[in-house]
Amino acid sequence: MSANLPNFTEYGYELIKVIGRNRQGGRVTYLAKDINRECQVIIKHFQFISEVNPWWGLETLEQEIELLQQLNHPRIPRYLNSFNCPQGIGLVLEYIEAESLSKIGYLHPIQIKTIAISLLEILVYLQQQIPPIIHRDIKPDNILIDDQFNGYLIDLGFGRVGIEEVSGSSTVKGTLGFMPPEQLSGKLTKASDLYSLGVTLFCQMKGLSSTEMPKYLDHSGSLDLGSLETQVSESFIAWLSRMVQPNPSDRFSDATTALRDLLSITMLPPASVTKSFQKPLKTSLKPFLTNRGKTIGLCTIIGLTVGVSWGWIHQALALGLILGLILGSGLSLIFTYHRSYSGFLGIPPLSCLFGVILTALATGLIINPALIINGSQYSKVDLWNPRDYKVAEGTGFTLYSDHPNSQKDQQLQEFLNQFRTEVNRYLFDPGSPSCSTEVHFFREDKNYYAAANYFGLNTDYGFLVRPLVRSPLVIMREDSGLGTLTHQMMYHYLGCSYPEGIPGWAAQGAGSFVEKFLAFEEEGKVNFSWGYRSNWRDVELRQRLDNIDFKTALIERNDQSLFRSLFLFLHHQQKLVPLLNRLHGAKNDGILQLETLFKEPIEEIEKEWREWMNTEALNLPMVQASFMSSPQETKLIKPYLRKYWTWNQKKEIWLKQNINSPDVIPYLQGILQNRNPYLFK
C-alpha cells in the first residue's frame, strides 16, 4: 500500500491505488483488496468533513446504498459493505474488470450497437422495479465496458425511485449536456434515461469528451445527427433521433420499446453501388477487294483459332475470342497492305502500322497474359468461364465442380455448412448469408491450374479472389485438402464480418489457425477440435525462433507461421475471441488492440508467447493433415487416438499423454491403415 493512501486495514481492506476523484462531491474511488475474501473490490470514500463538499453528499451516498441493496443485476456492481471512518464513509462495491467508456477510443458501429443493447437491458431491469428507478446521470464516465463490449452501469447516487414530479433542487442533479430537458423542469419519466443514453452514444461515435457535449445541443436540447450519415445506417440514425427528442412524449416510451426496435436495425450504411457502362466495341469494316477476301478470311481464322485455344486453356473463352479478333484484324491489315501504297519515305500507311500494333498487342498478351488477366479481375468485365458445374448450395456459398460426384459433393456441402457453424460458435459471426462466395472445387489438376493461370497466381493449393463483378471466388484443388479449404473460407468470412478490413497479420493468423483441425461425425453431429500445432509451420518456426523480431513481423505482415503460433497462443489463453471482437474497425491499430487486451506492451506479450512456445505448446500434438471422419470411420479412429493421446474435455482438444507420445497425429488414411505414428515425428 502506498504511503499516500489512507489505511483501511482495520476495516478489512487494503488500498491499491486511486482510480477516480470527484472533488465537488468530496469522493475518492479506490481499487482495493478485501483482506478476508482475498479479492479485489471498489471503495468509494466520501469525505464529508471537508468544507468544500455540498450538504447533499451524505444524502447521495445513503440513496446509492439504498438502491444498490435492492438491486440484483449482473451488470450493476453489487453492494458489498459500508463503514464509518474518521475521514468519512466508505462504500464497498463489487470490482468489475472493465474500462470506463470515456477512456475508450473509436468504436465500430457494430460495437456501439452491442453496448447500446446491453445498457438498454439494464434500463429495462431498472424500469421494471416497483416503483421504477431512474438513473438520472447516464454518461460515458458512468459506464464500464468489458472485453465483450458489454456495458455496466455505475454511480447510482443520483438515481431516483419513482417517476412522479419532484422539486427542482432534487431533479437538477445530473450532468449538463446529458440531462434531458424535463430533468430541469421537474418531471421525470421512463424516457428520461433514454435521452441520456442516446446523447452518450452520439458522444462516443463523435469521439467527444463529456465536457464538449453541451455545445452540440441547441437551447431546446436538440441534437443534429447529420454528421453520422457516413458512419451508420439511416435506420439507426432514425432510432437515435427518437432517443434524443427534447420532448419526452416524442421519444420511445420506455427502454423495452427502444430495445425491441434496436435489435432489428442494421448498423452499417448500405454499400454504394456504382454503375458503369462499357461502350460497345464499334468495328467499322471497309469493303475489301475480291483478291483480298481470302487473305482476310485466312487471317481471321488464324487469329480466332489462336485466341479460342488460348481461352479454352485459361478458362476464359470470351477473353480468348476478343484476343483472337484483335490478332486476326492485325494480321489482315498487315498482309493486305500493298507496297504500291507506301507513304512518304517508303513508310507504310497508317492502316499497316495499326495492324502491326494490334498484332504485337495480341501476341504479347497471349504470350504473357498476366497484364490483361490481373486487370480483368479488378475491372467491370467478367471474362472467366470455368469448365465446371453447379452441384450444391449451402449457407453463404454455392459449390461448383468440374467432375460432379453426388456423394462427395454432398459431403463437401455438409462440411462447409458445419464449418461455418463452428466458426460462428467458437470465433466470430461469419457475416450475413447474403455475403456469399462461389467455391470452385476442381478434381482435375489441369482445370485448377488453368484457373490459377487466369488469375495470375502460382500456387499448388487454393486461393481466394474478389472480382468486382461477381461474388468472391474460392478456387480449390481437390488434393489440397480440407485444411486449405477452411483457410480460404476463413479469409472470405473475415471479409464479410470485417468490411473495413483487418490487420494483415490477424487475417493470416486466423486463416492458418483453422487449417489444422480434427472433425468427427458422431450421432448425426460433427464436432470440430482446433488448437493443434501445424506439422510443418511449427517445425519451420522453431528453427528460426531465436532470430524473430516479433513486433517488426506484425508490422510488416510477412510471417504466417509466426501469426499462426500467436493465434494458437491466444486461443489457449482464452484471448482469441476478445481480440477478434476488438479488431472491428481496427485495421491500422491491431498491435494497439493486442496491447490493450493484455494490458501490457507488445514486448511483454512477446515474452509470454516465447515462454508458452517452449513449455505448454509442446504438449499440443501436431496435425499432419486435417480431416473429417464419417460415423463408421470415427469408430475406428477414436480407439487409435486414445492409444497415443488424451482428450481434454475442458479445452476440447487431444493432448499428448506423456513425453513418449508421438508428436504428430497422422492423416485420416494413415490412421485407418494403422500406420505407425512415429513415422511422422
TrEMBL record:
Its EC number is 2.7.11.1. The chain crosses the membrane at residues 319-338, 350-372. It catalyses: L-threonyl-[protein] + ATP = O-phospho-L-threonyl-[protein] + ADP + H(+); L-seryl-[protein] + ATP = O-phospho-L-seryl-[protein] + ADP + H(+). It is an enzyme of class 2 (transferase). InterPro entries: Kinase-like_dom_sf, Prot_kinase_dom, Ser/Thr_kinase_AS. GO terms for molecular function: ATP binding; protein serine/threonine kinase activity. Residues 13-263 form the Protein kinase domain. Signal peptide: none annotated. This is non-specific serine/threonine protein kinase. Keywords: ATP-binding, Kinase, Membrane, Nucleotide-binding, Serine/threonine-protein kinase, Transferase, Transmembrane, Transmembrane helix. Gene3D superfamilies: Transferase(Phosphotransferase) domain 1 (1.10.510.10). The keyword RNA-binding does not apply. It comes from Crocosphaera chwakensis CCY0110. The lineage of its organism: Bacteria, Bacillati, Cyanobacteriota, Cyanophyceae, Oscillatoriophycideae. Pfam families: Pkinase. Coiled coil: none annotated.
